[in-house]
Amino acid sequence: VSAYAVVLAYDGTDFVGWQRQAAGASIQGLLEEALAALDERPVKATGAGRTDAGVHALQQVASFTLERSIAADVLVRALNARLPPVIRIRSAREVPATFNARFDARAKSYRYRIFNDLVMCPFERHYAWHVTGRLDVAAMGDAARRFEGRHDFAAFQAAGSSVATSERTIRSSRLVSEAPDLILYEVTGDGFLRHMVRTMVGTLVEIGFGRRNADSIDELIASRDRSQAGPTAPAHGLFLMAVEYDALAAEP
Amino acid sequence: VSAYAVVLAYDGTDFVGWQRQAAGASIQGLLEEALAALDERPVKATGAGRTDAGVHALQQVASFTLERSIAADVLVRALNARLPPVIRIRSAREVPATFNARFDARAKSYRYRIFNDLVMCPFERHYAWHVTGRLDVAAMGDAARRFEGRHDFAAFQAAGSSVATSERTIRSSRLVSEAPDLILYEVTGDGFLRHMVRTMVGTLVEIGFGRRNADSIDELIASRDRSQAGPTAPAHGLFLMAVEYDALAAEP
User: Fold this and answer.
1) Average pLDDT of each block of 10 consecutive residues along chain B (252 residues)?
2) φ and ψ at A132, to 5 degrees?
């Protein structure tokens, strides 16, 4: 038995999300089918982050074990031959049998893309949130920085979530204006609650519109009250950019 | 009667091309349907460039006349409300009745995108040609420059084309390496023959692979023989970037 980790990129547009669901195509489901065909037995794959329906990934990480031993480059080609073009295995490596892509992840990075112009760019329709109206990008950038540090992010958690703790450490939270009409929000942390990045973005956009002040973020975090935060930004603007591990580099 | 010019962006993936065909959805067809609904009579639209099936546009220009007079910003909103999200009207302006988007065009700019890595990026699958294997980008850049100037481009014309003259002036022809895996070819000229840009790109890639030398471009142009040039690069890597007019700026 050999254990492997793969780095995947996928366009989440037509999926129910990373995780297998009762109905609909999931990235996990398609990966597990490709692995089962390869190993001629059922294979379970564990993903570092459970991306929601419509969320994309440039570097998701998944771990699994195979009965047969396969060279990493052969594994990449064999899986890509079985997966649809919207899911690509970027790299593979053999890992210790104890490696778990989800529980061994030390940090994750996400990017959220906002397209801010009157007319939506047709090429961005599945890859950015279309926000019309003038945004105060400086105020949004100021507010973004206030998420950094260790905080209880209960106010930014999907309603009905139950996790042991809603404390998380955000290492970096920055707004980048890549072009006059394209705003990127980039965040790295040791973990994220369900819908946390999207709720942070929904709140940042309210600050961009002047509906709340940048310094209200501090009170909002302290409130631990989801109803005080902004709306959940749409899934299709969100990209899982990278997952970090102690010993194992997730980079291809 | 009022005459208008609109600037359009579209994702060409699911279209038979700009031009109306016997079967399949065309950008021209959908624009004309939206215009007919607006003007309550059949309207004919003329496009600056007849992009092929799968070819995209960031700034196509189309001209038409309407019985009713409509403010430019109202026209943009009314057309976008009737067009699918893959086609967007970026701007509109009233033009002299004699204006013709096709015959008055003085120059067009195209960009061709090549994704050069072993594993294709899922987000580029409809927007770049996937070329695997090491490319000599410097040789390709040298070759690209040799297209500049006034030449007879008969060797780069789709077989069976009949045009008055195959002479064209290329103002600029450059290769840009935007990222290690992304190569952009950008060309501006007073006009292009059918499949000309794609055949130029197919030939540049052969030079990138060392199958022909950069200076062979000069002989190839002189040959006027399509069978001497490289293959036609796939349509989905090509973008119409801009159209220039004497008096009328195509920019929104």
Assistant:
1) 97 97 95 97 96 97 96 97 98 96 97 97 98 96 97 91 88 93 97 96 98 94 93 98 79 41
2) -100, 155
A129-130 and A105-115 as β-strands: parallel, antiparallel, unpaired?
parallel
User: A86 and B122 in contact by Cβ < 8 A?
Assistant: yes
Chain B nearest CA to A85, separation (Å): 6
Place of tokens 């895996």: B181
ipTM: 0.91
Radius of gyration of chain A (CA): 19
For A61, half-sphere exposure in the C-beta direction (CA atoms, 13 angstrom radius) is 28
Cross-chain Cβ contact A9/B122 below 8 Å: yes
Task: Report the C-alpha gap between B230 and B212 in whole angstroms.
Answer: 10
Instruction: Tell me the pLDDT tens digit for each residue of A68-93.
Output: 999 999 999 999 999 999 999 999 99
Which helix (H) or strand (E) element contains residue B5? strand B2-10
Angle at A63 between CA A62 and CA A64, to 5 degrees: 130
User: A171-203 pLDDT, tens per residue?
Assistant: 999 999 888 899 999 999 999 999 999 999 999
The dihedral through the CA atoms of A23, A25, A28, A34 has a sign that is: positive
Q: pLDDT value at position B202? A: 98
**Sign of the C-alpha dihedral, residues A198, A203, A207, A210?**
positive
Residue A76: closest C-alpha in chain B: B119
Q: Do A9 and B87 touch (CB under 8 A)?
A: no
Chain B residues close to A123, C-beta within 8 Å: 9, 11, 56, 127
Among candidates B11, B76, B119 on the partner chain, residue whose Cβ is nearest the Cβ of A122: B11
Query: Which among A2, A1, A9 is positioned nearest to A91, based on CA atoms?
Result: A9
3-state SS, A75-143, equals: HHHHHHHHCCCCEEEEEEEEECCCCCCCCCEEEEEEEEEEECCCCCCHHHCCCCEECCCCCCHHHHHHH
Q: Does A119 touch chain B (CB under 8 A)?
A: yes
Task: For residue B86, give the nearest of A80, A85, A122 by CB distance.
Answer: A122
φ, ψ of residue B186 in degrees (nearest 5): -120, 125
Residue B178 has a pLDDT of 83
Tens digit of each residue's pLDDT (9 = 90 or more) over A8-32: 999 999 999 999 999 999 999 999 9
Amino acid occupying residue A35: L
List the one residue out of A123, A133, A121 whose CA is nearest residue A208.
A133
